[in-house]
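Aim 2 progress update. The chain analyzed this quarter is reproduced below.
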Amino acid sequence: MAPPDEPENGEAEETALDDWHQAIANTAYFLWEQDGSPEGLADIYWQRAEEKHLRQRAYDIWLREGSPHGREGDIWQRARKALDK
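Predicted structure tokens:
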């Protein structure tokens, strides 16, 4: 599940962002369970899950558009851009 790129309307944007957050939550929960369900580390697991999804998003962009030399950082920024909106 990828973060929304360019939403067409507010409702679509909200739905896409909800889907993105749910995917991160599912991954964070899976990682937390794998590590034995330690207490008090929710933020760490959320960040780890978000990082995994952002890396996948950047890789998907790279596969779709290629990565001309010197644009690696641009692809990473574009993968993160949707979360900053």
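DSSP finds three helices and no strands in the chain. Helices lie at 10-34, 42-65, 72-84. These observations will guide the mutagenesis experiments scheduled for the next reporting period.
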